Amino acid sequence: MQFSVSISSISIPVFLFVYALVAVLKHLETKKTDAREPPVVASPIPYVGHIIGMLLRGSRYLKSLGSRCPNLPIFTLPMLNGRTYIVTSPALAAQVQRASKALSFNPVIPEVVNRVLGLDAGTMKIIRSGVESEDERGFVGDTQDMLYARLAPGESLDELTAAAGNEFLAQLTDYKEILNANGGKKTEELLGWVKQLVTVATARFLYGPENPLAIQPELEPLFWDFDAGIPGLLLNVYPSITASKAYRGREALVKAFTNYLTAGKKSTGSALTQTRGVIADKHGLDVESTARCEVSFLFAGITNTAVTSYWLILHIFANPTLLKRIRKELELTLKAPSEKSSVRMMNIKTITKDCKLLVSTFRETLRLYSDNASTRVVTTDTVLADQYFLKKGSILQIAGGIMHSDSTIWGGDAGQFNPERFLEDSTKQKSVHPAAFRGFGGGATLCPGRHFALNEILAFVAVVVLLFDVSSVDDEELPIPKKKDDVLAIHILEPLEQVHVQIRRREGWDQCSLQLETS
Ligand code: HEM
């Protein structure tokens, strides 16, 4: 009795004190720095609530805030002693993209690369000098310019596309033999199967036959350990302990790339890889730092491609009508060199131009599974769209996840996978603001690899669709798992559960071989 009285006599003042403190803190944090600042969305826990929400619930947290305030084109999240502005309207996103100096991605670069790649002080100085300078491009700028130029439609894109297409074709032709040796079918965990194929192929067409992953195949799972632990590396709290798998994976890759570069193997890689090396040398990066940067490029080249290909393959094979239509579209593009030939020539340019349903299905995959948030720093007090005051030093995010699931943009079926959504004659599609599709980001950070990604993913998926049948292991309908969106979205979202499939050689196509036409 005595005990409970003393507890309640202490707890009431403590409760009142905490209640008053929270109220004061909330008042302080929701107080606008300028009347025109976007509406503030407070968390029940002042100052740290949104941070906790994002850490624990990833991009799902942002989407839940978005659905709590559906009519706000932009809102403010108070965090610690700063602000993060969340843009949910495509029209405002386009304005953000245009204001690339006042709302800049550049200040984010050194912070992120330092944490993710573990660069030394000398390399960080090289990276910062260009990023912070008004008049010189520096290492990062030169690399970006080169990538945008080499991966734009033209000869060098065609060259890389041909290399990628041939690599996927070779791997999948080998897989046909594996199936033969296995009685014509094999069970695979689909995401793992696709990841492995894409990782091995990409390392090969970017870095040549003696690439680090070809020499040490055990690096492939370590690459995916690195990928999975990037949020931990970004947090940067004793990463070698708190994100130990990612840290170990990264360091193993760095060591292998250092050996690759030291042995002069770069000259056996793609023209793109060789040019990257020239830029690194020009700016004085040492071998180990160059290796660290190559790990980041390998990451950019593999992760989105692999996970997008997975969802695309799964959705196509899970829908027999879609499968039939896409096969028909693809088959119409194939050519036989002679009447009796069992060879079928496949042309990637024709596929991307003529296979409208496949292209639409690809874009729908990105819409549904990309929660990408394009991040900018407010470098000077700014009034966005003559309306919203944005305070210098704050962070701004264009919330792809919110936009991609917004039924006012995409219609009532925004939550569904609709492979026809992006068909040119779809009347719905015509009214969608171009900045609403965030799959490849936008503005100054628009993905330089987007044309190449379309080419290589369509080439890869086309070969799978033409040569194989993919079904569930129990011959039931293929399940489509939910997406894992309770994580920090650093690339296309992965599935919540594994899907095991049975892969068979496609009937009637046993004797056919595909070849790539490269003009
Ligand atoms: C389906 C495949 C792909 C998707 C969905 C994708 C998506 C993205 C996104 C969302 C961004 C950030 C944009 C932003 O923050 O606004 C990005 C950046 C980037 N992507 Fe891609 N990407 C894909 C494939 C590729 C490929 C194949 C390459 C390279 C060969 C590549 C290279 C890059 C690079 C280097 C950047 C950083 C650009 C910069 O910092 O300026 N991407 N990508």
Automatic annotation (TrEMBL):
Entry annotated with the keyword Iron: yes
Single GO term (MF): heme binding
Annotated binding of heme, by residue: C447
Record keywords: Heme, Iron, Membrane, Metal-binding, Monooxygenase, Oxidoreductase, Transmembrane, Transmembrane helix
Pfam families membership: p450
Gene3D superfamilies registered for this protein in UniProt: Cytochrome P450
Obligatory cofactor(s): heme
TM annotation in the entry: 6-28, 297-318
Claim: Thylakoid is one of the keywords in the record: no
Matches recorded under PANTHER family: P450, PUTATIVE (EUROFUNG)-RELATED
Protein family: Belongs to the cytochrome P450 family.
Protein name (record): Cytochrome P450
Organism of derivation: Rhizodiscina lignyota
